[in-house]
Amino acid sequence: MTEAEDEESQPESEDQDQLQLFQTSVTDNSSTTPVTNGTQQTSMTDSTDDSDVRFEVLVKERDALRIEVTQLRQSLEKLQANHQTSLESVQQELHETQAGKENAEEQYQTLLGRVNTIKAQLGERLKADAVRRNVPKPTGSMSLI
Which stretches of the chain are DSSP H helices? Predict the structure, then answer.
């Protein structure tokens, strides 16, 4: 074998050694006393009872977590619904405000047009009155009588 092949086979053999060690300790419960959660187990019955207890605890924890997830999901749905409602309300208010602004701008332009029309008509009337009266336009100097 080359050095590269030898290095590749070493991790596999280490994994196999660990697997065999694990399988030996699992199948040989009567001769060894494995340590679990800091306590030694002396027999297969104690190991089974402890496993059952741990399993029940895990099941209860899982159920509690499921309930919590359900509550959180419901809370999230309520928050999303409230957010959607308030968002729709704000959007409606925005549309109403924009419509009011557009209406005010239209009224302003209409009034501005009317004012300009009145100014133009007044200017024309003043000119027409001046022509009719044949009043000379004042010059830069005014004489007092």
Answer: 3-27, 44-133
- The b/e string for 62-84 (b: 16+ C-beta within 10 A; e otherwise) is eeeeeeeeeeeeeeeeeeeeeee
Residue pair 41/33 in contact (Cβ under 8 Å)? The answer is yes
Amino acid symbol at 77: E
Distance of CA 66 to the CA centre of its chain: 24
Q: What is the pLDDT of residues 65-95, one digit of tens each?
A: 999 999 999 999 999 999 999 999 999 999 9
Give CA–CA dist 123/106, Å, rounded.
Answer: 26
Structure tokens at 22: 């694990």
pLDDT tens digits, one per residue of 49-69: 899 999 999 999 999 999 999
CA distance 81 to 74: 10
| Residue 50 buriedness (CB in 10 A; 0-12 / 13-18 / 19+) | middle
